[in-house]
Every structure is written in structure tokens, then in C-alpha cells.
Amino acid sequence: MTTASESLLEVRDLKVHFSLPGDGLLSPRRMVSAVDGVSLDIAQGETMGLVGESGSGKSTTGRAILQLVRPTAGTVRFEGADVTSRDPAAIRRLRRRAQMIFQDPYGSLNSRLSVASIIREPLDIHRLGDGPSRRQRVAALLDQVGLPSDAGTRFPHEFSGGQRQRIGIARALALDPSLVICDEPVAALDVSIQAQVLQLLDELQRELGMAYLFIAHDLHVVRHVSQRAAVMYLGRVVERGASRTIFSRPRHPYTQALVSAVPIADPALERSRRRVVLRGEIPSPTDPPSGCRFRTRCPYAQELCANVEPQLEDAGDGTYVACHFWRDLPAAGRLAPSAEAVPSDV
Questions:
Q1: Mind listing the pLDDT tens digit for each residue in 16-67?
Q2: Whose CA is closest to 342, among 248, 267, 249?
Q3: Which residues contact residue 207 at a Cβ distance below 8 angstroms, ignoring those fewer than 6 apart?
Q4: CB neighbours (10 Å) of residue 293?
Q5: pTM of the complete model
Q6: Measured distance CA(305)–CA(303) in Å, rounded
Q7: What distance lies between CA 313 and its chain's CA centroid?
């Protein structure tokens, strides 16, 4: 996938906190720190991967960038404009130039609308073109995502999951965006269909030059599609850098655990890898641990980890790691044996 140097998206110290009712009638309300200080940059034409377990805040980060969820704090600058300022003009430009592909190809499409109406809806909302030009645009988009020309007259329930996701991709492309946030776009699909959709996204990026924020929990997929990646745990980024470096030489113990849990097809290499086994489940975001949030599951945690929250530190090769003791950790097994892309059946 293409990479460019000019900055498109800048996210600084993004926070999203939700208020929940207390456990009892007179109990105080609880605060959920879904995203707590995330900073990211995406260049024009590149793909940034965002990985982590369920509940780590990945999807909320994507929605907050698009202002679908109101950030509690932090700034999001898109194409030079601060969209967290709530300026109507900046928000409207964001809505045109940044789009999302959702995880669920069934629930994300309005079952009462025809496919043509679903794809055309963004054009209608932003009043782009007239009736004939919008119909032409819909027909071109159907062809671009590999759907037959008569698909526009049919309804979502007539299509398979992979075809529905192609409809969602066509809808996301309708306004010619420069950024597309892909929120687990292949997680609900069969493995063979996943490869086809990933190939389509790759081809579209090469043709149109847009950037992706690719959210996923599957490290093989993120390693395959992204140039850079960020690893999230309980609302914070714990490691960030080039995908090839992070997945071949993970420094943070959480990243090491994720990478070591992914099977490798080479039996000899698989046997030689060192496993990092985590204890327990991810803590509740309503009551995160003090200091390092990962310390309650980390096999290397020390007293310092409970008292001082580690900040992202430059490891010297463009990778940033939020761990007090990352220099002293033993190396963990890498995700892929070399720099090649993973097999096409990811």
C-alpha cells in the first residue's frame, strides 16, 4: 500500500470518558475511561493499524476521530483543521472527507433501502450533483467494488456477508474521502472472503490514494495491510511504530504476549518461540489499575509499575514503548519469520 509523507490526521492526547449510573440508587456515578490519552499521526495514502483486545478502546478511538463520539479532551486535526473545536464548517468537511467501514456487514446497512439508495445517501445529504450524476456515481461505485450492475435495485438481505461489506465500502467511497476508518472490516467474514475484501481495499487505496486507520484484533491482518501500527491496552497506546518492527521485535510485554499467541506455520520456528502468558482478564475501564495499567497481568511487573505510569519512550528505531523495563525484557517470538507479507489466506 502507498505511503506518503504529508500529514493528514493528527490526534493528540485524545480522551473519551463515559458516565455510568452507580451500583445502587444512592451510589455515585461511575466514570469509564474508554480512551485515555491516545496520540496518533496518519500520513496521506498510508495505513495505520490499531490493535488490541476487545475493550481496549480501538473502536471508540475511531469513532471519536470522526466525532461520532464526543471526545472528553484532546485535539483531532484533519487536513489542517481542528475538528474538536466543534466548528460547523470543520465538522462538515470532516464528514465529507473522512468515512468509516463498520465491522457488521448486516447491521450497518438499512434493510429497508435498496443498495442504490444506501450508496447514494451520502451524495444526497451533502447535495453533490443532480439526479443523473448521482445515479452514474452509484453505478461506477458498484463496478469499482466488484458488484453487478443490477445490484442497485436489490436489497441487503439478498447478498452474502462479503457482498454486503462491499456495499459498505462503496458507501464509504461515495464522497471520495481522503481517510477511511476500517473498524474490524473483515472480522465477521469467512477466511476466504477476508482475503478478497483485503485485496479490494488494497487495490482501492492504490487507485484512489486514500489513507486507512485499520482497526483489528487479528495481528496477521494488521501486519499484512499496514505500514505503521499502534497497540492499545485499556484505553492507552503501549507501543507504536513500524508494523514490521513491532511484529518482528515487540518490546512491550503486552505486545510480546499478543505476538507470541499467534501461531506460525513453520513447526521448527513455532517450537523455538518463547511464549508470554498473561494472567487473568483485562481490568474494568471503570477502575483501571494505578501506575501501569498492564501491571496486573504482566509477568515482569515490579513495585515501580504500581506507582508510576510509564510514558511512551523512543526505543531508537522509531518505535515508542510505554514500559519502565522494556530494555531488560527477553526477546519474544516474532509474528513472521521474515519481512515477507503473510500468506494470502489471512
A1: 999 887 776 667 778 899 999 999 999 999 999 999 998 899 999 999 999 9
A2: 248
A3: none
A4: 25
A5: 0.89
A6: 5
A7: 22
Q: Report the distance separating Cα 278 and Cα 28, nearest Å.
A: 33
SS (H, E, C) the chain: CCCCCCEEEEEEEEEEEEEECCCCCCCCCEEEEEEEEEEEEEECCCEEEEECCCCCCHHHHHHHHCCCCCCCEEEEEECCEEHHHCCHHHHHHHHHHEEEECCCCCCCCCCCCCHHHHHHHHHHHCCCCCHHHHHHHHHHHHHHCCCCHHHHHCCHHHCCHHHHHHHHHHHHHCCCCCEEEEECCCCCCCHHHHHHHHHHHHHHHHHHCCEEEEECCCHHHHHHHCCEEEEEECCEEEEEEEHHHHHHCCCCHHHHHHHHCCCCCCHHHHHHCCCCCCCCCCCCCCCCCCCCCCCCCCCCCCHHHHHCCCCCEECCCCCEECCCCHHHCCCCCCCCCCCCCCCCCC
Nearest one of 195, 198, 196, 193 to 182, comparing CA atoms: 198
Task: Report the distance separating Cα 296 and Cα 301, nearest Å.
Answer: 8
How many C-alpha atoms does 165 have within 13 Å on its Cβ side? 23
d(CA 298, CA 294) in angstroms, rounded, equals 6
Residue 316: CB atoms within 10 Å: 6
Task: Write the pLDDT tens digit of every residue in 75-119.
Answer: 999 999 999 988 888 888 998 999 999 998 888 999 999 999 999
Phi, psi for 151 (deg, rounded to 5): -65, -25
Any residues with CB less than 8 A from the CB of 270 and at least 6 apart, and which? 263, 264
Whole-angstrom Cα distance, residue 345 to residue 259? Answer: 18
pLDDT over threshold 60, residue 341: no
The C-alpha cell of 129 is what? Answer: 450533483
**Do 36 and 27 form a contact (C-beta atoms < 8 A)?**
no
Average pLDDT, the chain: 89
Predicted confidence at residue 266, as pLDDT, reads 63
**Tell me, what's the pLDDT at 319?**
95
Q: What are the angstrom distances between the C-alpha of 50 and each of 54, 202, 222, 236? A: 12, 17, 8, 11
